[in-house]
Amino acid sequence: MPILFKAYPLVRPALFAMDTESAHEATLSWLQRAYDFPLTRGLMRETVLAPTRLMGLPLRNPVGLAAGLDKNGAHIDAMGNLGFGFIEVGTVTPRAQPGNPKPRMFRLPKAQALINRLGFNNQGLDTFLANVQRSTWRQHGGILGLNIGKNADTPIERAADDYLIGLDGVYGHADYITVNISSPNTKNLRALQGEHELDLLLSQLQQRRLRLTEQYARRVPLVVKIAPDLTEAEIDTIAEVLPRHGIDGVIATNTTLARAAVQGMPHAQEAGGLSGAPLHERSLEVISRLRSQLGPDLAIIGVGGILSGRQALEKMQAGANAVQLYTGLIYRGPGLVGDCVREIRNALP
Hints:
alpha/beta; TIM Barrel; three-stranded antiparallel sheet; 16% strand
């Protein structure tokens, strides 16, 4: 493990003494500065290989960064230096938007959890694409996913317009594209997971992708990110709709509105999506249900509550082809990436 990763337990108390969102921004700034300086870049470089393929894409290992941590794609190379097999950035919306009022991120340390109601705060598609194009991650063989969403003030009936703008914009710069319809922090967004709404949205996205495939002479995989707060019947419906439109993968899951696991804790009743340790078991249930309905071919990326290598392996054993980290990095630090890769590599054939 790189020497700077070992120092994270010493740094964490100072970060946890800060406002949650301020600590998030400070951490990204620190990582970027460390990456920009060659000496410290080497001291925080992790390379743990467990080669695999995801939707036909060659991964150095099956452990990725979940969207939401680097919303504007401003730190792709610095994050890639931590040992991830793939990076996903966003969610980006066509136009810049500030998101919800602050404070809007809350730690629940006793549960190793986080509640956020950020609301797709980002600098908009043009800035996002400029950041992506400055990155050298893809040039050096890294796999990059770009996550698209809708602006908060776009009526839900016109949501497809925003997703089509996003698809057009990111297509030439992505190894895969994630359609985020499951954030709980944009009004009515999760309604797009309903059968009729999802069918209509994916039909339009697939038609546009066919045109973009011709234009760019390559087919970019499309992935849909779903919520954990779905019934078995709703999961089954999604599993029926995705293959119908040539969707290549599903990310299970986004944050949850459930609070049973954190009842009575400070901040537990804050509005927003809960992530971290309490989400792990529910995510496993959704992954397992999806795999049983989808069969072996459509890719599943497991995310939610991974705080150890063992939990990453459990996601894979439940049916995921790859996993993503976010909240676990806040509690465990960047050493979690290598721990997850090694556990998966040592256990799976």
